[in-house]
């Protein structure tokens, strides 16, 4: 399983925001994370729609977290940016139709595996990741942590 670039970008944006107490501009986030301004704006649009971040316009405006990192799970981000965990095309939330459903003997297995992995990702908070991988620079783990390794981290719970 591999997370999409947008899921990985969202994690980086949220790690950056989690270390700040004031709203910051999308330009600031783009510079700090090495992403394009458009990518940061697109990530923020999804996070804002889900009430994870908020944005205000003006000289003192910017993007800020609405939820603590302890309340944001990897599972939430995978669901938002990857449409959840899906090990077979016919097993996702948005694809319940399968031309071979009547004679397929493995669909239920893939659905169970997908659900189990999603549950494990739901149990890993972004805050738990930061605690597992502490750094000297205000808690940001942009270069040391690879989200695709998160499932292997032991003892991480929300």
Automatic annotation (TrEMBL):
Entry keyword rRNA-binding: no
Keywords tagged on the record: DNA-binding
Translocase recorded as keyword: no
MF term (GO), any: DNA-binding transcription factor activity
Matching InterPro entries: Tscrpt_reg_Rrf2, WH-like_DNA-bd_sf, WH_DNA-bd_sf
Any one of the GO CC terms: cytosol
NCBIfam families reported in the protein's UniProt record: rrf2_super
The protein's name: Transcriptional regulator
Native organism: uncultured delta proteobacterium
């Amino acid at each position: 399983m591999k997370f999409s670039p947008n899921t990985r970008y969202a994690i980086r944006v949220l790690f950056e925001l989690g270390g700040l107490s004031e709203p910051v501009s999308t330009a600031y986030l783009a510079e700090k994370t090495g992403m394009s301004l458009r990518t940061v704006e697109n990530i923020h649009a999804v996070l804002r729609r889900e009430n994870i971040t908020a944005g205000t316009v003006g000289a003192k405006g910017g993007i800020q977290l609405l939820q603590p990192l302890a309340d944001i799970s990897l599972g939430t981000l995978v669901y938002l940016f990857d449409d959840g965990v899906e090990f077979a095309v016919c097993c996702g939330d948005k694809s319940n139709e399968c031309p071979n459903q009547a004679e397929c003997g493995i669909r239920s297995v893939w659905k169970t595996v997908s659900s189990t992995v999603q549950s494990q990702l739901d149990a890993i908070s972004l805050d738990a990741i930061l605690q597992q991988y502490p750094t000297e620079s205000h808690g940001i783990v942009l270069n040391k942590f690879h989200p695709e390794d998160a499932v292997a981290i032991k003892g991480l719970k929300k």
